[in-house]
Amino acid sequence: MVSFNLLIAVALVYVAFLFIIAFAAERRAERGREGWLRSPMIYTLSLSIYCTAWTFYGAVGYAARSGLEYLTIYLGPSLVMIGWWWILRKLVRIGRSQRITSIADLISSRFGKSTPIGVLVTLVAVAAATPYLALQLQSVTLSFAVFAEGSGQVWGEQELASAALWVAIGLAVFTVIFGTRNLDANERHHGIVMAIAVEAVVKLCALVAVGVFVVWGLAGGVGRTLDLIDASPISDWTQPGGRWVGLTFLAAAAFLCLPRMFQVLVVENADERHMATASWAFPLYLMLMSLFVVPIAVVGLNLLPAGSNPDLFVLTVPLAEGRNGLAIFSFLGGFSSATSMVIVSTIALATMVSNHIVVPIWLSSRGTGAMVSGDVRGVVIMARRLSIMGVLFLGYLYYRLSGGGEALAAIGLISFTGAVQVLPAMLVGVFWRGATRWGAASGLVLGFAVWMWSLFLPSFGADAIIPHSVMANGPFGIEWLRPQAFFGIDGIDPVIHAVMWSLLLNTGALFLGSILTFPLPMERLQGAQFVNVFEHSPNARSWTQSSAHAEDLLITAQRILGAEEAQTLFQAEARSQGKAGFLPDVTPGFVEGLERELAGSVGAATAHAMLGQILQGASVSVEDLIKVADETAQIMEYSSQLEAKSAEQERTARALREANEKLTALSIQKDAFLGQISHELRTPMTSIRSFSEILREGGMPPTQQAKYAGIIHDEAVRLTRLLDDLLDLSVLESGQVTLNQQDGVLRDVIDRAVDAADNREGALKIDRRRSEEGVELSTDLDRLTQVFINLIANARKYCDAQQPTLRIKVGRHEGRRVVDLIDNGSGIPEDKQGVIFEKFSRLTDDRKAGGAGLGLAICREIMNRLEGDITYLPGQGGAAFRVTLPSVE
Amino acid sequence: MARGMGKRVLLIEDEPNIIEAISFILSRDGWTVHTHSDGETANDRIKATPPDVVILDVMLPGKSGYDILRDLRADPATAALPVLMLTARGQTRDRELAEQLGASEFMVKPFSNEEVLAQVRTLAGG
Fold first, then answer.
1. Tens digits of per-residue pLDDT, A227-249?
2. Chain segment A336-351, per-residue pLDDT in tens
3. Which among A680, A686, A845 is the nearest to B110, CB-wise?
4. Residues of B in Cβ contact (< 8 Å) with A698
5. Which structural domain range is residue A84 located in?
6. N or C: which end of chain B has fewer CB within 10 A?
């Protein structure tokens, strides 16, 4: 017999192995070497999370109890995969074009990005998945118990419960670590997908190994096995055809609707072509998984004493034969099946719960909505982590409450039936533009209620929740509401009864509701985009031209996507519009693209609501609706050539407009520049002349004399500094400056700048991460220091916060080293950001600040000479400057 | 030598050293000098306590001296008030603009103290 401790050790080593695999895959993906991580084989293997512990252990039990019926569970998904061209391809295309994060997101998005629909689907999904999660915990716990029994301890309820708890905690840790590394649920979880692909191989090999052992080791070959099967009651064809068709349909529907399947099929799909491979490879995988189920069941029934649990034959047959190695392998197979399902399922559910329930509540509880301070990402990630723990805890709770006694197959079917309540809303929504959110909601609610009443609640056993009398006579004696005989139609199998009625009423309510209610503009738009996803590019605008400030949008985007990513996105858009800097024009196309990016992180409904707040409801115009309604016009309009041309023209026009503005501004500037110089020189000269005349006349007390002489001196210094700056600038501008190339480290440059920036009183707090500043430089260090001195001095002079603080952080942007200097004052208004680098562009007329408004102009010239850059970085709260360091070869 | 004889001058200027210099010169000559540094509230200040002469700088925070002058001339109560414009931008265009807007006199910085004094005396006497 295998010692129990050895088993624990093996399980832990296996888990550690999975950790390493997952880490390695994440690292690989981070370094951009995704390569085979995105291969069709990995995709196919990841689909195998369909085969849970229910399939691994339960299929044998199922076969032992109900014969060949277990095949329906494999048949349904195989049909879906073989027919991927019709349904799956469309879902994947929609998923990618709308950046869908979960099945709740898909349906909420289709019905006008409706938050309530998202909540509804999430609740249905969580309710349906909870028993299934419990089932996985149960199967792992039971398999531990088998080995514990083997080493002499018989586990009571206490041990089972604590084992289940530890398994749940372990899974939560793994899922939190690898499932919430990226916020963007749309970005693939490479680590997890890789780990479940490995687990897919392990469980297949384990089951085949047990099968081979049973056929050739115990039964004595293929012929003998077939004889045994013939002799066993399993091969009797006793099931009615209706149940076969019903269960096959149920499995096919569940394959599409289970949150975890949607996650791997649609969300983690990296390439539509992978489906073509999976369309034959996945049915093949399922066939191999099911090949040895009957032989194991038959031999198990013959070999083991009557009353043994057939759900555990895969373990107990090798153990009974003393094949410990095989038994451990088989245990790992079951362990893999359970864990991979739980991990993916939990991620999918947690994404739904956090995006559709927690974050909307959090946002609305803040009152201020999208314009909150702080980083939303932290909140979303925390919400997702808590949701993962919450979902697992629910599973554990169900396991404890249900007593863990039921046959695995029964729980599986109950859970499937709950999950497929989402099917009508999903399929009808994707194929029929007329479906409305009221239809979808009423269908979901009705289907869910029927499922609860006719299948879920009765599953706890007679009298557990629903009293026996209600089962027999209906609630309050209403005969036609009997849980297992709706409308008085008796004698249907309970599962088929529940599937049939729930889906029938669900679909009926969906159609009726859709016909009776009128869709919102947003629903029409989304409906058209979903149904016609192949016909036209996603171009019907859901945002009209709005006066929203690009900076507000950037602030929100940074909070969700993170600063670096949001800045890159905005900069790229600005560049494609032919503009410099970080702030593009707020065009409808840009807002729509941005919304989709945000939706990848927080779901369509939340993203839409957040942007809606900034744009103040500047959504869907009448013109847009006419476009959607009129198909022919649409086709003409989307003729891609036209579009490319007009986009090109727009770009050129924008570039021309900017160039013209620049030219006009330049000639005005030249005049203004001379006027400015005159002003800046004459002002100190006025004081000097006036006071020297006063002193010359004499006849005043010595203290006053000294004071006036002091003023003359100060103004002379100011004049000299101004001339120095002007000369410096003109030398820099003419390009005649000689650079003094030196090697050094950024940290020393900033140290020198901080010392020199005249901050002796310490009025400005400087917040640095010195450890990040070890950047090697090879440039004119004195000039670079001059730039930092200027920026620090500016913060000291102009930052208007109570406790002025300047944050200096080093980062990377588009592959180059950047230093951001961000203060906590009120920043620079958007309309002034364009001019601050111009000469004499003082924002305040505050002469006490002492400069002539040349500092930033000099900084810009210096950075140009050094082949770096300096830009204003909008959306940081205070004034923020980004110095892009000269690159080092 | 004192010719001011208690007459009031309002100096609208934001450069502290120039304020000090002009105040000194005029006070010594017997003028009562009030100062004001903010462009935006300058018109209110003039209306509240009308001086005998206004010395008005062009570059002021909040509102330019030209705008202040335009508003003064548009208001019957101050339309005839003597205004001496001071500017550090000595281009012809600036002088033309000042005259067009109705400045009584126009001086370019830096000025000689005597000249300022003479101008103020003329304006107050006239």
1. 888 887 776 666 667 788 888 99
2. 888 888 888 988 898 8
3. A686
4. none
5. 40-431
6. N
